[in-house]
Specification:
With 312 residues, the chain is of the alpha/beta class. The protein has one domain: Alpha-Beta Barrel (TIM Barrel), CATH 3.20.20. It has ten helices and twelve strands. Strands 3-4-5-8-9-10-11-12 form an eight-stranded parallel β-sheet, with helices on one face. β6 and β7 form a beta hairpin. The structure holds NADP nicotinamide-adenine-dinucleotide phosphate. NADP nicotinamide-adenine-dinucleotide phosphate binds next to α9. Keywords: Oxidoreductase.
Length: 312
Amino acid sequence: MGDAVAAEPPYPSQVAELAGFSIPRLGMGTMALAIEGRPADREQAIMTIHAALDAGVRYLDTAWSYYLPSKPGTGEPDDMGYGEYLVRDALASWNGPRDEVLVATKTGWLRTLDSEGNYGWQADARPETMIANAKESALRLGVDAIDLLYSHCNDPQVPYEDQMGALKQLVDEGVAKTVGISRIGNADIATAHRILGSRLVAVQNQFSPVHRDPEHTMATCSKLGLAFVCWSPLGGFLDPFNEHLFDRFREIAAAHDCSYQRITLAWELAQYPYLFTIPSARNPHEIEDSFQAVDLRLSQGEIEYLNGNAAR
Ligand SMILES: NC(=O)c1ccc[n+]([C@@H]2O[C@H](COP(=O)([O-])OP(=O)(O)OC[C@H]3O[C@@H](n4cnc5c(N)ncnc54)[C@H](OP(=O)(O)O)[C@@H]3O)[C@@H](O)[C@H]2O)c1
């Protein structure tokens, strides 16, 4: 008899259910198409979203706050809603099944510009702001009800219970079909789950080789049956990070003859069967490359090596 070969654990499915949609677990974040560094040509942004949808992406992630203030302060009417209008227009001009695409947006955060020309972010999650902005998001997206509406952050000036109360009201009034929460820890997840019950379907937190969920919020999502959606899954483009954190991903990529970004996304998808990852892209090539992570199967040894638990 030969040596017994240990069976590999079952590989998570490429598709999962989120907010009533059965979709591939790799979507697209559209922040890079809408804020600083966005393509100067709006047509290129639309082409990038079309390329994503043509490749098979069925989850587009935007936010009320994906715009650029043009004067010091929090906004200018001309640019308000830039990101949401972009998603609306890309879907309207796409030659594909619009009703298969989950569109998620977020409420409770604003952009700022200071007098030196630096862009920033500012929480404003007073219930009245969250509710008014979510209603604007539905209008901008051209939908009767938002498929999935996230609270963008926990505003330290407002009790989290009140922020969650606003989300609850938005579902109960039919402005949103389901809700999620973002940029939060385990205590906030418990509060949201208590207040929102089955209305709450997803947690959107940072997760990548740069930030490996030190508070283990993914495990909390698993316990509660919530989707975990990774933001900045490739490390993000706004803040610098240590490139060496991707060294092992580059090594595995060389063996698979593909980009290390694709390996990174495949590694994320292997972490939790109910994980969605939403990389940004500024051109068609990037998202076409990234989407192929859905079909990339890493071995258990590779996953452990990338987890940092084993030498190769
Ligand atoms: N909830 C929140 O607070 C929050 C915060 C941040 C982000 N998000 C969401 O997460 C999404 C993604 O995060 P992110 O925009 O910070 O960045 P990211 O997905 O980590 O991507 C960073 C950059 O990687 C490059 N890239 C992407 N695919 C590539 C590929 N296949 N090959 C080579 N390079 C590639 C692109 O930069 P270049 O164009 O320069 O090549 C992209 O902008 C956002 O769009 C947004 O929807 C949410």
